[in-house]
Amino acid sequence: MEFSALLTSAGINIAFCALFLSLYSILRKQPHNYSVYFGRRLAEEKFRQQVDYFSFERLLPTAGWIVKAYWCTEEEIRRVAGLDSVVFLRLFIFSIRIFSITCLVCLFGVLPVNYHGQEMNHTYIPEESLNVFTIANMKEGSAMLWVHCVALYVITISACVLLFHEYKYIARKRLAHVTGSPPNPGHFSVLVRSIPKSGNELLDDTIRNFFVNYHGSSYLSHQMIYRKGNLQQFVDNAERAYRKFVRVKLSVFDQNVRSNLNRCGLCGVRASSFQLYRNKFVDAKKSDLSDPEVVEAQKDCPGAIVFFKTRYAAIVASQVLQSSNPMLWVTNLAPEPRDVYWSNLWVPYRQIWLRKIATLAASVAFMFVFIVPVAFVQSMMQLDQLKEMFPNLKGALKMSFCVRVVTGYLPSVVLLLSLYTVPPLMMRFSSFEGSISRSGRKTSACTKILFFNIWNVFFVNVLSGSVLNQLNVLTRPKDMPSMLAELVPKQATFFITYVLTSGWASLCSEILQVYNLVYNFFRKCVFCHQDNPEYAYSFPYQTEVPKVLLFNLLGFAFAIMAPLILPFLLVYFCLGYLVYRNQILNVYYPKYEMGGKLWPVMHNTIVFSLVLMQVIALGVFTIKKSPVATGFTILLLIGTILYSEYCRQRFSRIFHSYSAQDLIELDRDDEQSGRMQDIHQHLLDAYCQTPPGTGGGDNGQVPIEMIMEDPAQEVSDSSQELCDTVQEVSDSIQEHIDDK
Amino acid sequence: MEFSALLTSAGINIAFCALFLSLYSILRKQPHNYSVYFGRRLAEEKFRQQVDYFSFERLLPTAGWIVKAYWCTEEEIRRVAGLDSVVFLRLFIFSIRIFSITCLVCLFGVLPVNYHGQEMNHTYIPEESLNVFTIANMKEGSAMLWVHCVALYVITISACVLLFHEYKYIARKRLAHVTGSPPNPGHFSVLVRSIPKSGNELLDDTIRNFFVNYHGSSYLSHQMIYRKGNLQQFVDNAERAYRKFVRVKLSVFDQNVRSNLNRCGLCGVRASSFQLYRNKFVDAKKSDLSDPEVVEAQKDCPGAIVFFKTRYAAIVASQVLQSSNPMLWVTNLAPEPRDVYWSNLWVPYRQIWLRKIATLAASVAFMFVFIVPVAFVQSMMQLDQLKEMFPNLKGALKMSFCVRVVTGYLPSVVLLLSLYTVPPLMMRFSSFEGSISRSGRKTSACTKILFFNIWNVFFVNVLSGSVLNQLNVLTRPKDMPSMLAELVPKQATFFITYVLTSGWASLCSEILQVYNLVYNFFRKCVFCHQDNPEYAYSFPYQTEVPKVLLFNLLGFAFAIMAPLILPFLLVYFCLGYLVYRNQILNVYYPKYEMGGKLWPVMHNTIVFSLVLMQVIALGVFTIKKSPVATGFTILLLIGTILYSEYCRQRFSRIFHSYSAQDLIELDRDDEQSGRMQDIHQHLLDAYCQTPPGTGGGDNGQVPIEMIMEDPAQEVSDSSQELCDTVQEVSDSIQEHIDDK
């Protein structure tokens, strides 16, 4: 490929991008597309008021959305879209920063050295082959390789400094998020699984006795998880209804007293009276349990959610080994209510380890099986092989148009289509794995897709050759550096076009929301539906994070080898930053919070990319016979690994646990301000179990927020709640009767 | 090597063993050897009463010790030598059981099949080459390979069943040990490291404030760890003296009251009055701290031991993340006092991760560097190479005696001598690693030596060839099975003689205690010292466990390949069981308790050996072209890995932590019986810090036991204690004055 061809390709892609972005700026102004482009805002019901008037301005492309997306503060994004979006955008900020530095260093330092590597007469630059810009153009034993080595040092050190800064910043943000957000029921609740069954006691009593016995001072209550049984559902609903009723009554009563007493010391009374009612109810329920159906249902109970009085007590119960048999009384901190993945709670705990191994095996197997479509694509690109495979197609294959379609267009379509099967499959794997929370499932899928992308997009393409060749590489890890060093520069052209087409195009398709747009168009204009469907999806971290990280990896891997890729990447990151900011602000609706848990994944992948860059450089310096540069690179490699280990020591635990200090402070604040009793009451109703059939999907559950309302609001809410509850109970009764 | 040669070699070794054991049975009856052969009993001072009379019987070899060793119950061994010895002996019991089964299966099933593998005329058996007994004698594609496959299944399944049984048994023993042994100060104490320094507060106050603030209900007291400073030592001693004095006073007072009141409810009063005294003292000490030397000493303090009121509180504090910076307020459950490795407590916590990586790198490097002496030994075995290396030795090398010595004897001496450097070096590595307890250091060294043995004795000898060859194997993991399958049967003869010489001989040298015996002889008979020196060493698990595990590995690796090794191994295990039982009962003195923590290491190594056996079998079946057997072996391999993972899930955590249930029950028992106050008092004096210079060695510290004395004993002890304390304090003052 010549330099001019690359420029042409870039020009075409830039034009397309500009076109799509203009199209977006027009389409977003059309009222019938609001549901596509402002899903989040619609979900928050602030956007409906806009009047549907026509103006000529609606047909003009404008850049207003870019300005809005750019000027929005981070705090605002955190408030509307959660910490995870902030973390995702920080990844872009990091990428922009590090690739600006890399661009500077490599375009003005490494590129001229590569270009003048061989003693040759350079022709007019646009007619130059792209190979003269890569490290393949350097002579063996060239003294100028120290430029590459210095560039390597500059890139690695600045990446490490920036990464450390980001890790620290995000860890601080995470802490502020934990301490600053409203009380989260997940912090007070522990999921207990694998409860031992005793013959002469109901499971419900077993759980109560265990926690009253060993965590008596902090145990509040518990809620069983049922696998099946409508009666159970009914009893549960009735209990919830009763509790709500009690609360409403109390809050009405409370309202009156409170206004007189100004909230001093009365909370205690209120809670204990509530407790009184509750205990009565529990007693009433106990006598109910002589029913054989209830006993049957309890036998199938795979676990319970246990509520504690303080956050600290919950985290202690979740981290300390409960029983001397580690397979019994397994405790984990419960996810927040809207994050619970109910259908996995019904999975018996003793299956989990087996499921994890099976999933791991299946993912690895799938990764390698996927080489088959890649090999098929490669064989499609070679016409001769194709003719052999399908002899009766020979006639059609003689036409030049058909040839062009079959060899040029079809392969990438096949590859793209087979790539589209990956995220749903990996999500299914992650569900099967037995993750108890939606966020855990997403994180797990994200890691799997990341591995898959790095292996199947980067390695398989770099090592392109026969399938056997690729497998052989795995069996000879020692030859990896020199093999990569030889093959990576050759594939530079492919990956530059990959960034242009897959990277830039994916951003355009992301902002246009093509699928939803078309669906909406047909729905409204062809089938004439008038209502606005809601497109409030949660952000697809599991597909977007691996994509961005893959581009990071490409950037680092090619930085020294073929610096021409860097400007295109930098444009991708800048554009991506704006596009995703816009999408996060307008389109996606955060259904649950992962608390920035994806950052360690991102950090580790970037460190891996740095190490990969150094390993490739090591191979290059060995091939080019520059022992000094090799030595310095090994030093850098050791330094990078030590740095990564330090970061793990310093930050990793923050993202997996909460510190006693913070939790105790939070508990104290709540106790001193008297909010604790309110929290305890809300806690008991926080976890609403969806029936087995409906809990699987991502969109199955309406988010429940546990926010302390101001007292004036409470009464009207309560009466509304009461109505709902009555409705619920009557529905349940009706259902129960129908079943009988 | 012929079969008869093997029998001759075995006969010679059996004769030697019999000789050494008889010698032992005579030597142990000589009174001047008591200190060598009854170190533990002497240390417990029960053995001194024996009268030194001469009888002719003393010169006759007897088997009484074998009977005594055999009939001793496990419970007795646990009581005198701790749980670790029991676990070590269980390893022998497991080995004897599994290798009895393996012997049966392989000698009567596999061996005849191997022997009749080729269609050939068999000569008289003793003249047969040993090769006809190995799997190398089987034809390609032989149908009789299913015998090997069935044997593989029988061995693996019985090993898994036995292992599971052992794991369960030892886990139960460990729990019984934890709940049954006297209160351990380590269960109440948490080691806190990396305490943040605040400018306007002394470290002592920082610690107190932190724990009073966040663990107020359970915090009892704390003890700083000082790096240097005699004054600090002095202040500490004074505090300890004061505390002991108070206790003596109280216990005298208590004694009087107690006899009247029969121990009812007075403990509370006693403790609070004690607390009163203590607080006064703390106040007094606080004013002392204006001294700049104290401030200086506190600056260097790397941590503190914090005491809690209950075991549960201590484990909670040790497991929950304390601060939002995981590198600050790092908590670990403290080792028991005699197990603390003081000199490592002075290592700043922020160095630990770096030290661990450095140690790992150094150990791996040493493992590979050790190939050099092995290669040197190999080159010594080849005379031609030797002549080239040392041309001026040509004259000497012509004599046949010299040749025999240089090629036959010297190589193994060189290898043995270089192998002797390994355990001390690995112990040094493990000390450098920063382990806070002696037991942790020993466990870590044990793992390192284990890896080293498996690599340098098994792999390097099997893959014997040039150094480069061995390294190449690592870079081609795929070829490993077939390479092993080809090479392992060839090395059968070498390893059979290895079992005979290294295994049996090591047992004889172990029971004779050659080094101590000679030292003792020179000391008493040549230099005429009359006193009995104490040879009360703690059991060298770090060298013995890897040795036994290596023989296990050899047994499994060769079971199918060359079953002739099995009877010799079985003899080794039976003899070893008796010898080590005897040594544990008589010679070694347990200085600290590891609580059976070595079992998971043993279990994992045995599972690894099983997997290795299967991998080698896989290679053999591939070479012998038996696809069905290959398929079944792969199934077995997957099953073994799943089994190992299940064991990890089921048992592993028990060996690293204590369960809340057990600890709370223990706490309750102690509280209800009123012992808790006594425990708290003992706790404050339990950790006696040795000065930096003397704390390093293994023999530096006299074991302190924390046993609840009966009240009558207490008074006399107390007065003795008081005298000691006064002596201590006056010594300290003297030292302090000398320093000034």
Brief summary of the model shown:
2 copies of one chain form a homodimer. Chain A is mainly α.
Question: How would you describe the overall organization of this protein?
Answer:
The structure is a homodimer of 740-residue chains. By secondary structure, chain A is an all-alpha fold. Among the domains of chain A are: 3-175 and 350-624, no CATH class; 714-739. Chain A has helices at residues 3-27, 34-37, 39-43, 64-71, 74-115, 145-180, 185-188, 203-214, 230-261, 266-288, 292-299, 311-319, 342-345, 349-369, 371-381, 383-389, 400-420, 422-432, 438-462, 467-475, 480-490, 492-512, 514-526, 541-559, 565-586, 599-623, 627-651, 660-672, 676-686, 711-739; strands spanning 189-193, 219-225, 303-308, 330-333. A 4-stranded antiparallel β-sheet of chain A has the order 2-3-1-4, sandwiched between helices. Mean pLDDT of chain A is 78; it is low at 253-287 and 691-719. Chains A, B: GO terms for molecular function: calcium-activated cation channel activity.
